[in-house]
Amino acid sequence: MTELTLYEEAMCCSTGVCGPDPDDELVEVSAALDQLEDAFDDLEVNRANMQHNIDQFLETQRIYDRVQEDGPSILPITVVDDEIVAEGEYLSYDELTAAVDGTATPQEA
């Protein structure tokens, strides 16, 4: 089983796709993650939002350290099977697919 976790800044709800005028980037990311889950049978997708899932940040030492060192501007952080593949930006569907397929080169952390 491949695990993709997206660590995100504090948002009003777990996906940030709420309210009368949701952020277009967050709508695209939510759609890409849903599409990814449909495309890969052995993929588990998790989203950790600082406001709703602070325990996940605190329990994941490497992510906690990155946020402590650089502040919340380092978010979002995308992790695939415990490997940080992106920081400070949301990946497109194609980039996420490459990361899950193992064909992406992880960003330097």
At CATH's second level, what is the architecture?
Answer: 3-Layer(aba) Sandwich
Broad CATH class: Alpha Beta
Low-confidence stretches: none
Strand arrangement, largest sheet? 2-1-3-4
Strand coverage percent: 15-25%
CATH superfamily membership: Glutaredoxin
> Helix share of residues?
25-40%
Question: What fold name stands as the CATH topology?
Answer: Glutaredoxin
Q: Please state the overall shape, judged from the principal axes of the Cα atoms.
A: globular
**SSE topology string:** EHEHHEEH
- Mean residue pLDDT: 87
State Rg: 13 Å
**Class derived from helix and strand content:** alpha+beta
Multimeric status of the protein = single chain
Instruction: Please outline the major beta sheet.
Output: 4 strands, mixed
Write down the domain tally: 1
Tally the helices.
4
How many β-strand runs? 4
C-alpha end-to-end distance:
24 Å
What does this structure look like?
The chain has 109 residues and is an alpha+beta fold. The protein has helices at residues 24-39, 54-59, 61-70, 93-101; strands spanning 2-8, 43-49, 77-80, 83-87. It has a four-stranded mixed sheet. The longest helix is centred in the first third of the chain and has 16 residues, at 24-39. The two termini are 24 Å apart.
